[in-house]
Design brief:
Rossmann fold, 6-stranded parallel β-sheet, 8 helices, TEII
């Protein structure tokens, strides 16, 4: 049982529907925080308990140092979230969050013999494929900001605000380091279904790179390209949440005790 009286910095808000049949944990993109997912609860099925995940170094955890390596980040997240995986759960991750959700799923299978009921990966190429971009996290500030703009991976209003950039550059560097130093280790594919999403105008995820996620599961796989760029989860929000609702509803119906 979960002790709801204990504060967990990884989960900054109480569950939306504590008695729901399935928990949905959402992992943010590079530079992003848990708040980007908080309003999703109004548009997802009531059978889904939405749990946005807060990583160190942002929002309520601004005073903490962000991780620069995926391995300890995933290990820390696993320890923090494991007590909340006592019922069926699903993962959604965008960009950095997709990579994190995938590796967390593999670690949970390896160490605890559990997997998500469904894994949603968004805005990131399949992990076994090489990065087409030159590593950027060690570039000087001006060059790093130019690289962010070229990749269309950071919102323009952030790039245009010097005060905001001074605050977020260390976090963005750390998050980029997590992704750019990641090394895929071959392993047996997951057995859970995977749904992979991207934006039609996102230069970071080509169609073949999205389709490559199919190799990461022995279960069902589906891919969908939404209108928009890397931040289609905002610009195509209605379409994305409609798709999530359909997939989550189907997943809940297929649970053993549904």
């Amino acid at each position: 049982m979960i002790d709801s009286t204990r504060a967990n910095p990884w989960l900054p808000w109480p569950g939306t529907y504590p008695q729901a049949k399935l928990r949905l944990f959402c992992f943010p993109y590079a530079g992003g925080g848990a708040s980007v997912f908080r309003s999703w609860s109004r548009e997802l099925p009531s059978e889904v308990d939405l749990r946005p995940v807060q990583l160190p170094g942002r929002e309520r955890r601004l005073r903490e140092d962000p991780y620069t390596d995926l391995v300890p980040l995933v290990a820390a997240a696993r320890e923090a979230l494991l007590p909340y995986l006592d019922r069926p759960f699903a993962f959604f991750g965008h960009c950095l969050g997709a990579l994190m959700a995938f590796e967390l799923s593999r670690q949970l299978r390896s160490l605890h013999n559990i997997e998500p009921a469904i894994l949603f990966v968004s805005g990131h190429r399949a992990p076994q494929l090489p990065d087409r971009f030159t590593p950027a996290h060690m570039l000087p500030d001006a060059d790093f900001a130019a690289e962010l703009r070229q990749r269309n991976g950071t919102r323009e209003e952030v790039l245009q605000n010097p005060d905001v950039m001074r605050l977020v550059l260390p976090l963005l560097r750390a998050d980029f380091a997590v992704c750019e130093t990641y090394t895929y280790t071959p392993a047996a594919p997951l057995s859970c279904p995977i749904a992979a999403f991207s934006g039609a105008d996102d230069p970071a995820v080509l169609p073949a790179e999205l389709a490559g996620w199919s190799e990461m599961t022995s279960g069902t796989f589906a891919a969908q390209v939404f209108p928009g760029d890397h931040f289609f989860l905002q610009s195509a929000r209605p379409q994305l949440l409609q798709r999530l609702t359909q997939d989550l509803t189907r997943t809940i119906q297929q649970l053993p005790d549904a």
